C-alpha cells in the first residue's frame, strides 16, 4: 500500500507541475505577443484544412512544458490549485448540435434498415409454410390424399428451410462495423429482388390456388418446394455479389496521413468508394502508428522562437512597410543558420532519448530481478500468504516510475499511458512470466491505434469527402479524403496494370558441357 501511495503522489506531482509550467509559459507568451501574431491567427481560421492544435486528450499538459522543465522535475514538484480555463464558443455549440442531429439520423436510418430486412426475412421463411398450411385450414375435406411422394416433399422443404436459415444467419446477421453514409447498393438490390420474387409467388398462389381452391395437394407442396429452391439460388447470388466479387485484387490504394505524411499501400477489389473507405479505416487502426499531435509542435515552437527573436523598434514614426521590410531582411539572414539549429536540436533530442531509454531499461531489469527474488521467497511461505500479481506490480512500480515518466515525457507519449494502464500491463507481464523486454515493447516504440484504450483515440468519427458518388465503384485515378477532427487521410486509387507473361523454352541439351583435363599435372 505504501508503494502505491508513493506512486500516486509521484504522478499527482507530475500533473500539478505540468499545469504550473503551462500557466507560466502562457503568461510569458501573452506578454511578448505582437500584433502580427494576432493577424496570423486570424488568417489561419480562413484556411479550409489547418493543422489542429496539439491538445492532450486526458488533460495532461506536460508536453507543453517540455522545454521549460529540467531533469530534476520530479524533485521540485509543487501542488497548486486554480480555476478552470476551458471555454466554448458559439461555433462549437453549433457543431455539437449538428453532430447530435447527424447521430440521431444515422441511428434512425440503421434501425429502419434492420427493421425492413427483418420483416422481409420473416416473410420469406413463413411463405413456404403458409403455402402448405393454408389449404389444410381452408378446404381440408376437399383435398386429395397426400401420398408417399408428397410426404417426402415435406422432409425436403424442412431441410431446405433449415439450410437457408443457417446461410442467412451466417451472411446477413452480423454486427455492423460502421455506419455508412449511403445504402449498400447490392444489398438493397437483393432485398428488392427478394420482395418482388415473394410478391409474385403470393400473387400466383392467390389467383390460381386460393381462388379456385385447388384440390391437388401434392402440386401445392411442389409449388412451395420450388419457392424454397429459388430462395436458395438467390442466397447463392448474394454470396457472389457480397463476398466473392471483392476478393480478387483490382486496385492499389495509397493512404497518406496529412499531418506527418505516414503512408501505407493496400490492395482492394471491386468495391464502392464508401466500402473502400471502410476497409482503409479498418487497416488504419491496425497498421498506422498512433497519431501524436505533440510530435508536431516542435516545428511550430521552432518557428515561433525565430519570430520572437526579431524585434523592430519604431523610433522616427515610420510607416509599417519599413517594419515589414526589416522583418523580411532579418528573416532572410536567419534562414542561413536555421538548418544548423535544426541539426543540433535533433541531435540533442536523440541524445536525451537514448540516455533516458538506457536508464529506463536498467530500472526495469532491476525491478524484474527483484520480482524473481520475491517469487523465490514466496514459494517458501504458506499458500495463504503469497502475493498476487497486482500487489507485486504495485510493489516494484515505484522503482521504475521516475525513469518511465521521464522517458515518456521526452518521447511525448505520456498522454497515452496512465498509471492504471501501466500497472495493468505490468501485472499482466508478471502473470505470464514475461521478460523486461516484453514489458518495455509497448513504451519504447509507439504502436498502432488499437494498442491503446479507446478513450485515447484522437479519431473516432470520420467524414468521407469525394468528388464522385460514394456508391460508385473504384476507378483509376479516384481520390477521396477521410477527415476527422485532428487530421485527414488522403486516399489515391491506382488500377493494377494488366500483366502479360510469355514463355521462353530452353533446350536442356544447351546446358551440357565437356570438362577436359590436361594429362600433365604439376608435382
Automatic annotation (TrEMBL):
Belongs to the Vang family. Residues 19-35 have a biased composition (Basic residues). Residues 74-86 have a biased composition (Polar residues). It is a multi-pass membrane protein. Residues 36-45 have a biased composition (Basic and acidic residues). Residues 1-86 are annotated as: Disordered. One of its GO terms (cellular component) is plasma membrane. PANTHER family: VANG-LIKE PROTEIN. Pfam families: Strabismus. It comes from Struthidea cinerea. InterPro entries: VANGL. Coiled coil: none annotated. This is VANG1 protein. Keywords: Cell membrane, Membrane, Transmembrane, Transmembrane helix. The chain crosses the membrane at residues 111-133, 153-172, 184-204, 224-244. Its main location: membrane. The keyword Cell inner membrane does not apply. It comes from the Eukaryota. The lineage of its organism: Eukaryota, Metazoa, Chordata, Craniata, Vertebrata. It is found in: Cell membrane.
